[in-house]
Design goal:
Low-confidence stretches: none
InterPro entries: 1-PFruKinase (IPR022463), PfkB_dom (IPR011611), Ribokinase-like (IPR029056), Tagatose/fructose_Pkinase (IPR017583)
GO molecular function: 1-phosphofructokinase activity; ATP binding
CATH superfamily: Ribokinase
Pfam family, one: PfkB
Protein name: Fructose-1-phosphate kinase
Distance between the termini: 37 Å
Radius of gyration: 18 Å
Number of helices: 9
Largest sheet: 6 strands, parallel
Number of domains: 1
Structural class: alpha/beta
Number of strands: 16
GO biological process, one term: carbohydrate catabolic process
CATH topology: UDP-N-acetylmuramoyl-L-alanine:D-glutamate ligase
CATH architecture: 3-Layer(aba) Sandwich
CATH class: Alpha Beta
Mean pLDDT: 94
Length: 315
């Protein structure tokens, strides 16, 4: 069982549009409403793979009730934390050329009592979990050290923990030695305080996060592939992808694929790459099923191409 924690979930509306013309009436060609938030997406990908998952998340108001209903319909067990504020609603505009514009609301501010209830709910749901995946931004009311406290509690309970966040929350959590962290290129550059222009730059940055406390780093480099760096070495994974439709939730699908495959080594990296590549071929934040995967299109190597320029350098 994979337990996910999403401190700032959302109700996500995705509109597919031919192009985005500012100030004009734009007619959508497709529309989806999905439960959102990085941890929620991880649970959705785990469930799509036919595996058990429990999602812990604060929910409030009509949007929160709809999020719970949508997750239940996808076979995901929900451990809700009732909050007074309404769950945020986000909008994504996906253009036909692959460009995505997102409008993310801030979400409710959690009270001290709600913060403690969230931690206590994770504690009560942890027994029997193979992994806890803590994902996304922190809502108002949670200090950057909140994830660090959660990592410490998970380890005290003997549960492995994966962390997908950024900025001060990521840096604060490193001291508690999360089992794996999953930054994208921009988050990796932010964590080390310098731009990344090559795969080698990303490798060095991942090694620095390990030196700071992360036991493993799974770095998403967008169209350039993914890096895995742990105590046993470094691996680089790529997949050929035709017809990118939406990259919403692709990184979350990758993390789910990594954890489903055991969360360690090149085999888990291959699963992460396959899930991420499948996700970008699907609309909105639809998560891939096993039938969507193309494992034969994935290449994983221990010969990291350190001199290869990143197609999207991170600053």
């Amino acid at each position: 069982m994979i337990l996910t924690v999403t401190p700032n979930p959302s109700l996500d509306r995705t509109y597919e549009v031919p192009s985005l013309d500012r100030g004009e009436v734009v007619r959508a060609t497709g529309e989806r409403v999905d439960p959102g938030g990085k941890g929620v997406n991880v649970s959705r990908a785990v469930a799509a793979a036919g595996r058990r998952t429990v999602a812990v998340l604060p929910l409030g108001g009509a949007p929160g009730a709809l999020v719970a209903d949508l997750l239940d319909a996808q076979g995901i067990e929900v451990a809700p934390v009732p909050v007074a504020g309404a769950t945020r609603s986000n909008i994504a505009l996906a253009e036909s050329d692959g460009v995505l514009t997102k409008i993310n609301a801030p979400g409710p501010e959690l009270t001290p009592a709600e913060r403690e209830l969230l931690l206590d709910t994770v504690r009560r749901q942890s027994p029997g979990a193979d992994w806890i995946a803590c994902c996304g931004s922190l809502p108002r009311g949670l200090a950057p050290s909140w994830y660090a406290a959660l990592v410490a509690r998970a380890h005290a309970a003997g549960v492995r923990i994966a962390l997908d966040t950024s900025g001060p929350a990521l840096l604060a959590a490193l001291r508690e030695r999360p089992d794996v962290v999953k930054p994208n290129a921009e988050e990796l550059a932010q964590a080390v305080g310098r731009p990344l222009a090559t795969v080698g730059d990303a490798l060095k940055a991942a090694e620095e996060l390990r030196a700071t406390g992360a036991r493993a780093v799974l770095a998403s480099l967008g169209a350039d592939g993914q890096l895995l760096v742990d105590a046993d070495g470094a691996w680089f994974g790529t997949a050929s992808v035709d017809g990118v439709r939406s990259n919403v939730g692709a990184g979350d699908a990758s993390l789910a694929g990594f954890l489903i495959a055991g969360g360690r080594g090149p085999e888990a990296l291959a699963s992460a790459v396959a899930h991420g590549a499948a996700a970008v071929r699907l609309p909105g934040s639809v998560m891939p099923t096993p039938d969507d995967l193309a494992p034969d299109a994935v290449t994983v190597t221990a010969e990291v191409p350190v001199d290869r320029p990143l197609r999207e350098p991170a600053s």
